[in-house]
Design goal:
Keywords: Oxidoreductase, Peroxidase. With 178 residues, this protein is α+β, with helices and mostly antiparallel strands. The chain is built from six helices and six strands. It has a single domain, classed as 3-Layer(aba) Sandwich (Glutaredoxin), CATH 3.40.30. It is globular, with a radius of gyration of 15 Å.
Length: 178
């Protein structure tokens, strides 16, 4: 299933954008947060972006305050935090709901096309799994900050990587698409 590229977006700076702006690129779409135990993943996301951007990778960050209210800041605060602490230069977008009635259509499409397959068997993955009820684990909703969706140049959704997967561990899958 190819992703619909006419999704309207808003940059963190308030400018209009759309997913079509990135057609022909390999995309790593990530819901992010600045006050999460996983926030250091920004460093690896930036490293992936720097390493592969000239080959066509774009990391797209979507701050979300839906998980433990871990993204409470304004757009300016989020941008400053990301640049100062992690040198983030990949595109960041306005705060976005990724689940529920107000979920952005992009995330509705991503979760439908790349359903939740469970957490990995690492210690971190097992800790994540223990945070959720069986009913929550049956849902395809985004479970937490730093869920990552990989999209090929043709718009096909290649994979979903849960928060327990470190961004650099996705590098082999990215390289296959470049």
């Amino acid at each position: 299933m190819a992703i619909v590229t006419n999704h309207k977006l808003e940059t963190l700076g308030g400018e209009p954008a759309q997913l079509a702006d990135y057609e022909g690129k390999v995309l790593l779409v990530v819901n992010t947060a600045s006050k999460c135990g996983l926030t250091p993943q920004y460093e690896e996301l930036q490293a992936l972006y720097e390493k592969y951007k000239d080959q066509g990778l774009v990391v797209l960050g979507f701050p979300s305050n839906q998980f433990g209210a871990q993204e409470p800041g304004s757009s300016d605060e989020i941008e400053g935090f990301c640049k100062v602490n992690y040198g983030v230069s990949f595109p960041l977008f306005a705060k976005t709901d990724v689940n529920g009635a107000n979920a952005h259509p992009l995330f509705r499409q991503l979760t439908a096309a790349a359903p939740f397959q469970g957490f990995d068997d690492s210690d971190k993955g097992r800790r994540f799994a223990s945070m959720f009820s069986p009913e929550q684990l049956e849902s395809d909703d985004v479970k937490w900050n730093f869920t990552k969706f990989l999209i090929a140049r043709d718009g096909s959704i290649v994979g979903r990587f849960e928060p327990s997967v470190q961004p650099l561990d996705i590098a082999p899958a990215i390289e296959k698409l470049l």
